[in-house]
Amino acid sequence: MRAVVTGQIGVDKKPYLNAVADLGGERGESIELFHLGDMMYREAPDVRPGRILDLPLSRLTTLRRAAFKDVIAATTPARDHRNVVVNTHATFRWRHGLFAAFDFDLMKRLEPEMFICIVDNVEVVHHRLHQEHDIDATLKDCMVWREEEILATELLADAMGCRNNFYILSRGRQTDTLETALRLITRPDMKKVYPSFPMSHVVDMPDVLAEIDSFRAELAKHFIAFDPGDVDEKLLLERALAAARAGEDRIDVTPHSFGGRSGNPTLRVSVREVLDIAGDIDGQIYMRDFKLVDQSDMIVSLIPELPGGVPGLSSGVERELHHAFEHTKEVYVVWKPKKNPSPFITETATKIFRSVPEAMAYFESRGWFAQQTLFGH
Length: 377
Hints:
Elements: E1 2-6, H1 13-26, E2 32-35, H2 36-43, H3 57-74, E3 84-87, E4 91-94, E5 97-100, H4 104-110, E6 114-119, H5 122-132, H6 139-159, E7 166-170, H7 174-186, E8 192-196, H8 206-222, E9 224-225, H9 233-245, E10 250-253, E11 267-270, H10 271-276, H11 278-294, E12 298-303, E13 305-306, E14 310-311, H12 315-326, E15 330-335, H13 343-346, E16 351-353, H14 356-365, H15 368-372
């Protein structure tokens, strides 16, 4: 697979992709990884670290083209290079304003087969961005940039004939999605699944969260899983709303802690800045989750039983199930409540299970595990 990987500054793609390549090496699957930014700095030894985007656009373009030509030369002919990953960007939102970070003619010569746009929690991206660069960017700026990066990458994928090989990958904690990224690059034939489950209204139910977390882990073990829980900004927004009602100016948040897991240090975030992006958070969740469904082969939804025997069927899960059905995806539901599901579930589901082990046994009987588990792992 020849994959182009994009993502805004602050996603920290380089160590993430290095870890993916290392994991591939452990599995006997070599990945040739090219960090275009590093290659550009090698072309310009006079440029101080972290300052390359301050160059005039003309020189920046010249450096990028030179580096990209080196990638093409190093990976030609394509048949001799099994797995190639180019780490780059689709757009930059910098002091020059918004501008493209690619050249159509060179991208065409590379002959990419897949495009992946990596995303992360906005407060984490914002924190990394300000750690590494002297720039005044708000949470709103980071949200807008992420949306631009996704759209530009999708349009580029379409222009390169990869409309059906464009993926959004939420990195979550780094260890959460390394396996997903590796499988996507080296085994794109594997079954792709969107795990669906209630989120915001079960955050105070530890037993239900543990059940959901086990369900997510089981799917990630056997499939390429595009997990909506790997970006959890809705929880950030709810914390900010509660803080605003209490008259607090800042909150401490631990990103990627849904289900009791945490993968980043606690960050201090401005309540006002979070409230300023409330509409963006909701809008991007709506857009992103549907795109994750669209890029999957099937949706598997866990409906837990909440206290009092109430089905844990949130409005978000209902919309995801209906969207998947309307877009001709396979729809599987693990229904845990004693109360029977409504016709809106039974008439749109490909199959309904009463437990996660029952669902996994069915998937295994279809041959999906044996055929697609990566090198026996």
